[in-house]
Amino acid sequence: MTDKHPNVSCDLCHIKEFNSYRYKCLNCEDFDLCSFCFECHLEFDDHKMDHLMVKFDSPNNFCGFTIENNTKVDLEFIKQKFQGKRHEEICNACGYRIHGVNLKCDICFNYFQCLNCFQSGKSTDNHVHGYHPMFVFNRSQQVLEIKSVKIIREIGSGGFGRVCLARQNNQDFALKIFDLSENKNKKMNPHYLFKSLLRELDAYNEISGQNIHRMIGNATEGNKFYIATEYMEKGSLKDVLKTDKDFGLCERYKVAFGIICGIIRIHEKGLVHRDIRPDNVLIGNDFTAKIADYGIAKIANQNQDLTNVAFNPYMPPEFYRYLGSETKPKRLDLQKIDIFTYGLTLLEIFNGTHGKKNENEEFSFRNPIVVKKPPQYFKELVEKCVQHKVAARPIPTIIFSYMNKIHSFFRFVCKEEEKKGLESFSFDERENIFKQTYELFINEFNFISEM
């Protein structure tokens, strides 16, 4: 988890000392956004979309650089830091390899510009200058020095490797270790596993956000492949649902809202996750939810199939129709798979259950997963998400708009009570705040009207 940014407030939502990414504007004087507000891509007052941003991963770190407190970070400072730097990326505007400051679009897939093209206001293809926010990017920060990594303990294992809590330079992180030579799973040969790992790296490189699990670095050593990611203290959502007594209603809502925010980030980049479920959502100490495990994430296009997606009981009916079929799913249909699995995850978060329509038969198109027990909250939303008819499922931005009304009210309550966040209230107070808010919300807003 990212440490809190001391003495920094978001200039849009006014949350103090947030622990998401910090986006600092290089055009405005003393202007910062939390990750959530930056990802909304809004203009207001003097801050515009064509303003260049720099992203802080932690209080004194950006793009692999560590700075002292009170260092003035402006464009001239950024230029000095990247002076003489040769990047791997090619500028999508001029076609030349980028030297010096490297800029990445937060909306377009795999889109980069050099500083000269950005300052010239160049637009190309689907990238429109002034409408697509860009931030300073440095891929070299992702190199991991394995020899200096200390393994503390193993925290998980699976068919393809193990996960350890590790430490380097006083930083704790989760380290995935894959030994391709020891892969014994007959369904995935080492070659395909390696391609899957490279795809996971591509997804980590392309997607970032408050609700996206962050990669710290990666490395290869012989037949071993390493991916270092931020350490999420509470483990998976599956673990939290089973054992965490502090997982109250506000915390459950925060996780549910965070997951849909993460799905939007994935879909914005033209990707689909295809395996949203409690096992693949990681939870931090403050109940921030982050979507993880991008080994099967792919670009959503009409030429891909679903044959390499591991079987799991969260898949919608159309998954079984496409298996072994020459018919390829359309892009929107692929993204609607994430909505279906989100609906099942939301169902579990609020104490509902699901299972096979006929428990005595295998999962199939004619025997799909169904809701067995409705959730305590958000019943209508869950029903919409798990519709068997693909077109009837809502798009993620509609779900976000619907749930953001509660999020906005929570922020209003905190501001009125002069609290930094809901965590400043007692557990019982938070439970009452959620129940009262939900009753007001459900009476005033109908999900169907949002669609």
Plain-language structure description:
This protein has 451 residues and is an alpha+beta fold. The protein folds into three domains: 117 residues, no CATH class; 85 residues, Phosphorylase Kinase, domain 1, CATH 3.30.200.20; 216 residues, Transferase(Phosphotransferase), domain 1, CATH 1.10.510.10. It contains twelve helices and 22 strands. The strands form seven sheets. It has a five-stranded antiparallel beta sheet with strand order 2-1-3-4-5. β4 and β5 form a beta hairpin. The chain is globular. The two termini are 34 Å apart.
List the helices and strands and how they pair.
Layout: E1 22-25, E2 32-34, H1 35-39, E3 53-58, E4 61-62, E5 65-66, H2 75-81, E6 86-90, E7 97-99, E8 102-105, E9 112-114, H3 115-119, E10 134-136, E11 150-157, E12 162-168, E13 171-179, H4 190-206, E14 215-221, E15 224-230, E16 235-236, H5 237-243, H6 249-268, E17 271-272, E18 281-283, E19 289-291, E20 298-299, H7 317-322, H8 331-349, E21 353-356, E22 369-373, H9 379-385, H10 396-416, H11 427-444, H12 447-450
Antiparallel strand pairs: 1-2, 1-3, 3-4, 4-5, 6-7, 8-9, 8-10, 11-12, 12-13, 13-15, 14-15, 16-18, 17-20, 18-19, 21-22
Helix pairs in contact: 6-8, 6-10, 8-9, 10-11
Strand fraction band? 15-25%
Q: Which class do the helix and strand fractions yield?
A: alpha+beta
CATH fold-level name of the largest domain = Transferase(Phosphotransferase), domain 1
Averaged pLDDT: 85
How are strands sequenced across the largest beta sheet? 2-1-3-4-5
Determine the fraction of residues in helical runs and give it as a percent range.
25-40%
- Poorly predicted spans: 299-303
Shape: globular
Tell me the name of the CATH homologous superfamily of the largest domain: Transferase(Phosphotransferase) domain 1
Number of domains: 3
Largest sheet: 5 strands, antiparallel
CATH architecture of the largest domain: Orthogonal Bundle
Total number of beta strands: 22
Q: Class of the largest domain in CATH?
A: Mainly Alpha
